[in-house]
Amino acid sequence: SLTLSVMFTSLLNVRQAISIERQLIDLLETYIEHESERLEDIKRFYAKVSDLHSEVYSGPSASMANPLVAFTLIKRLQSEWVNLVYSNEAQENTQALRSGYEEVEEEEGYFPKLEDLQGAAKGLMRLQDVYSLQVGSLVRGQFKRINNGNLIDIYSPIISIPLSGDDCFLVGKVAYEQEDYYHSVQWLEESVRLFRGAGGEWSPENEGTLEDALDHLAFSHFKTGNVSYALSLSQELLNYDPMNRRVSKNIEMYERLLVEYPPLPSAHTELKRPKTTYLRTRNTYERLCQTQGTQPRHYENPRLFCDYFTNDSPGLLLQPIRREVLSLQPYVVLYHRFISDSEAKSIQDVAQTGLRRSVVASGEKQATAEYRISKSAWLKETAHPIIGRLDQRITMLTGLNVQPPYAEYLQVVNYGIGGHYEPHFDHATSASSPLFRLNTGNRVATFMIYLSSVDAGGSTAFIHANFSVPVVENAALFWWNLHKNGQGDGDTLHAGCPVLVGDKWVANKWIHEYGQEFQRRCSPNPEE
Ligand code: OGA
Ligand code: FE2
C-alpha cells in the first residue's frame, strides 16, 4: 500500500519485523509437525511391507497359499502403492505453509522488502566506514576499529551475532551492483572464506553459493585492476563449474591481459572508498563521530562553563536547569535533564504511528535522501498535553516565541540501522526553500531534545566548530543558526552521526526569525 515506508530507516520497524517472524516460526512449526506425521506414516508402511517380505513371503510356500496373503498383496499393488506414491499430502503441507506465509506478507504493513534489505546492507557499510570497523571482526559479531595496526574494541555486544557466507554475499552484492568495488571486495572476500569453510554445504535458505561469491569477487578484483587475483579466483570457479563458458572466456581474457600488461611487482594499488557528495568534510565528520573532537578540553576555557540557569523565568526559579555552554562560535548550549524519562517515553509513543521516512529540502520540494536516514513525525500541540508543556519550558529557557507560525511543530525523529544525518544546515540556504512557507522568515534557532540514550554512536557533530556531543538522554541542545544580521552562520554545519548500536530518538523544535526580535538582539551570542 501507499503508506508503506522503508523499514531500515527506523528501529521501531525492526521490532515489528521481530513479531512478523514470530508468526512465521509458528507456521513452520505446524508444517514440520505435519511433515513429520507424513514421514512417520510412510515409514510405518515401509516397515510393514518390508517385514512381510522378510518374514512371510520368503518363508515356506505354504504361507503363500493363504488366501489372505494373496488378497492383501494384490490389494497393495493395485491400490495402496498408488495412493502412497501419488499422495498430495506433501504438496498440501507446502501449500498450507506458502499460503500462511503469503497472508503474513500481505497483512503486515511492515514486511521488509528488497529495498529494506539493500538499505540495511548499505547501513552496515556506512557503519563500517564512519567508525573504521574491521570487516573481519564485524563478520564475527564484534565491533572493532583498526587504529595504527591495532584492533580496539569500540563496543562489546552482550550476544555476538556472527554473519554467514550468504550474509556477506548479500552485502557484497549490494556494493557490487552499485559498482562500489571497494566494499564488494571486502565483503565478498569474507563470503568466499566462509563458504569455503562450510565445505560447499548446501542450505535451502541461501541466496548465493561459493560459485556466485567467487564470480562476483573475481570480477570486482578485475575492475580494481587486480587481474592475477581475478584469474586465480576464476580458475577455482571453473573447477566447480567446468562447463561455464562465460568463466572460461574471462579466464582467456585475464591471461591475455597479464601477457600484454604484466603487473609490476611493486604495483599495489590501495583501494579507495567511493566518493560521496560530502567528501569535503568527510574526514572531519568521521573523526568527530569517533571522538568528541575538542569537547573534552572545554573545561580549560573559562568561557565555557556550567551553571544552574533560570533565565529569570519565574517558572524556573525553584528548579533551575543545568546549563552547559559547549561552544561560543557558534553558540551551542546543552540543557541537562530538560525532559523527564516518562515525558520522553510519552512523546515516542505519540509519534510512533505518524513516523514516515524523513525528507530533506530539495529545491522547492522535499525528497528522501541517502544522507538522511531516519523516520520522523510532526506533532501538533494538540497531540498530547506534554507537547504544550515542553513549548512553555522552551520559552522559559530561551525567551523565544514557539507558537505557530513562529516555530514549526515538534519534529520527532527515530533512527534505524546505521541511521544518520550527514553534515547540513538546519536553516534554509536558498530563497526558494520550502522552509519559508510559514512566512515567518528563516530558522533562527534549533532546540533539539534527546529523547533516548544510545549504546554506541549517534553523536551530534559540529563540523567547523570541531566538537561533537554524545547523546545525553533527556538533555536538550540549543543553538542559533543565523547571525544577528539574519545571514546563515556557516559554523553551524552539523550532523547526526550514524547510530552504531541503539535506538536513537530526538525531537526538534525549529524557531523562526519573526516574533523573536527582542530576544534575538538581547540574548547571548557572545562572539557578535
Ligand atoms: C536534525 C539534526 C542531529 C542529531 O535533525 O536536523 O541535525 O543528532 N539531528 O540527530
Ligand atoms: Fe540538523
Automatic annotation (TrEMBL):
Annotated ranges, domain Fe2OG dioxygenase: 406-513
One GO molecular-function entry: L-ascorbic acid binding
SUPFAM superfamilies for this protein: TPR-like
Keyword field: Dioxygenase, Endoplasmic reticulum, Glycoprotein, Iron, Metal-binding, Oxidoreductase, Signal, TPR repeat, Vitamin C
Protein family: Belongs to the P4HA family.
Complex formation: Heterotetramer of two alpha-3 chains and two beta chains (the beta chain is the multi-functional PDI).
Name assigned to this protein: Prolyl 4-hydroxylase subunit alpha-3
